[in-house]
Amino acid sequence: MLVSTEGGANFTDLGIVLSTGDPLNCDAENGFFAGVNGDFYVILDRERRFFYFLFDNYSGRANVRAWRWRACRLRIARSPPAFVSRYYVGAWTEPGIGGIVSPIFPVAVS
């Protein structure tokens, strides 16, 4: 995560805010992904209280139906990475670094 207080002229590196908690699987059946978070988006909520991180997930012990859109959030007044929390089974309880996560929009087919 980077932040700029100079309109993008210079940035301060605040560190990594999100990493998978699952080990790489080089034998993954899909043949393309060994385990990654990808297609990353950051959205500020309407009340300007949280940044929401939306991302694909292609890792984990679960089957393909458990893959797809995942979410994390960061309260604007806090500093990452310690305050990023992952969405897991209906609550923002898991850490951004190494935590587990459940899909907010699971895939319908393999």
Task: Reconstruct the topology from this structure.
Blueprint: E1 2-3, E2 12-13, E3 37-44, E4 50-57, E5 68-75, E6 84-88, E7 91-95, E8 105-106
Antiparallel strand pairs: 1-2, 3-4, 4-5, 5-6, 5-8, 6-7
Describe the protein's architecture and organization.
The chain is mainly β and 110 residues long. The chain is built from no helices and eight strands. Strands 3, 4, 5, 6, 7 and 8 form a six-stranded antiparallel sheet that branches. β3 and β4 (50-57) form a beta hairpin. The relative contact order is 0.20. The model has no long low-confidence stretch (mean pLDDT 78).
- Shape verdict: globular
Helix content: under 10%
Number of strands: 8
Mean pLDDT: 78
Strand content: 35-45%
| CA gyration radius, whole angstroms | 15 Å
Task: Tell me the series of helices and strands, N- to C-terminal.
Answer: EEEEEEEE
* Class from secondary-structure proportions: mainly beta
